[in-house]
Amino acid sequence: MNVANGEISQEIGDINLAYMLLAQKLVKQDRVAAMFRLGVSRELADMLASMSLAQILKLAASNFLLCSFRLDEHASMSAVVGEGKDTMLQQAHMSILMSARSLQGRKEAATV
Amino acid sequence: MSTKSVLGEVREVQLAIQLIHLGARLQFLESEVGLSRERLIRLYKEIKGVSPPKGLLPFSTDWYMTWLANIHSSMFYNMYQFMKTHSDEEKVWVLIKSYKLYLQQIEAQESEPILDFTRACTMVRFFDSDMLQLSTCRRCAGQFVAHAHDHKSGYVCVLCRPPSRAGKARGSKRAAGGEISVPGMESIGLAVESALDGGGLH
Ligand SMILES: [Zn+2]
């Protein structure tokens, strides 16, 4: 039981680290495009870009996944996944939904 | 935009080069770049190896409503809107960046770009002049390009409710291995194009 839990923590840590490193790489390449792909605010993007490896490692070693599920509505999720759509259409649908999501997130953040 | 300074002119030339590479038409270059028509034509020839094509820009909003075109247009416009909101750059650079992002997305999907740069720019103008709007699909909550003042409620997008013939056309396109047959675009799109080519001004 304990061993299994340790493995899960390790896996979460690995994913966190991979995610943080990728996110930082994207932000350093092109901030706005990264904000689009990651769905994060400008402030967060800047912070990601400025983080040291030590900081990233520390943050990644957590029991919580740092990347969250972005298709967080059942309706959207089933619209994209369902009905045996071909890959191209599924990707296109995803792209459209994700863009709107990112914008919605920003709008909400801005009004708070 | 003033091109008095040398640096300013360099920037204009760089902008023109980017736009020509993306496939911008001469009319668009003239409206966005502060260089003379003669210089733009020379630049165009140098980059593309041929003279810029004649003919008007496509101007009908109907093209954006056909099935596959609507999917691609919606992808692009969502990206453009994001870029416009979050980037500090000039509008024309925002256009360029979002169009490149669109091309990247298409490449990742291993499909063909349906929306060319001129059409993308024209679409942005249609939005600016309130002829097009984004309508929210009530099934998937995605935002799709639609005629302005249309379908305010109860709108269902082309992906949640594809036309029946779209599925068939898709199958045959795949079998043909990249052959350009664009499902759902037959009648309206082609009619508009030929009308434009026939009546080219200048
Ligand atoms: Zn939909």
Cα shape of chain B: elongated
Number of helical segments with 4 or more residues of chain A: 6
Number of helices of chain B: 8
Which residues of chain B sit in consecutive blocks of at least 5 with pLDDT less than 50?
167-202
Largest sheet geometry of chain A: none
Mean pLDDT of chain B: 79
Task: List the helices and strands of chain B in order.
Answer: HHHHHHEEHH
Assembly state: heterodimer
Helix content of chain A: over 70%
How is this structure best described in words?
The complex is a heterodimer of chains A (112) and B (202). Chain A is mainly alpha-helical and 112 residues long. Chain A has helices at residues 2-29, 31-38, 42-50, 53-60, 74-81, 87-111. Chain A has six helices and no strands. The radius of gyration of chain A is 16 Å and the shape is flat. The N and C termini of chain A lie far apart (43 Å). The model of chain A has no long low-confidence stretch (mean pLDDT 84). Chain B has 202 residues and is mainly alpha-helical. Chain B is built from eight helices and two strands; from the N terminus they run ααααααββαα. Chain B has helices spanning 6-22, 26-32, 37-48, 67-86, 91-108, 117-128, 164-175, 186-198, and strands spanning 132-136, 143-147. A two-stranded antiparallel ribbon of chain B has the order 1-2. In chain B, a hairpin with a 6-residue loop joins strand 1 and strand 2. In chain B, helix 1 packs across helix 3 (37-48), helix 1 packs parallel to helix 5 (91-108) and helix 4 packs across helix 5. The longest helix of chain B is centred in the middle third of the chain and has 20 residues, at 67-86. The radius of gyration of chain B is 18 Å and the shape is elongated. The two termini of chain B are 24 Å apart. Bound molecules: zinc ion.
